User: What shape does this take?
Amino acid sequence: MGGENLVIQVDTIFVSGMNTDLNEDDIADHFGSIGIIKMDKRTQKRKVWLYKDKITGLSKGEATVTYDDANAAQSAISWFDGKDFKGNVIKVQLATKKDNWSGGGRGGGRDGGEVSLLQLNIEGLLCGHRKLTSAA
Assistant: This one.
């Protein structure tokens, strides 16, 4: 789908091309050697997201790692991109995510478009209500 607005996450890297046998701890240990990985407040685990196939549940060999600061993310790219990690040459770059805050009523991601359309409908109803009450 084209036209989606993406926002660069300056503190998060996207890693691809990894061995599919790796788990979150393997990834956190390796990438944690270059900087402090942010802790998830809810789970109290390091913020590493391993992408898995929705049907099989097996790793896709891709992950995001979120650092405490943007400098660590840049260092990880410089240090690890194009290098061997457990038998595979990996690609490391800054992660991106969908920008759910722009685009008004357009969009169609998981929540972005639906929330925007709902907000527009509510705003439209409120504006219509104000017009009706002020005209009376």
Observations:
- The domain at 6-98 is CATH 3.30.70.330 (Alpha-Beta Plaits).
- The CA atoms of residues 35 and 72 lie 5 Å apart.
- Strands lie at 6-16, 48-52, 59-66, 84-85, 88-89, 91-98.
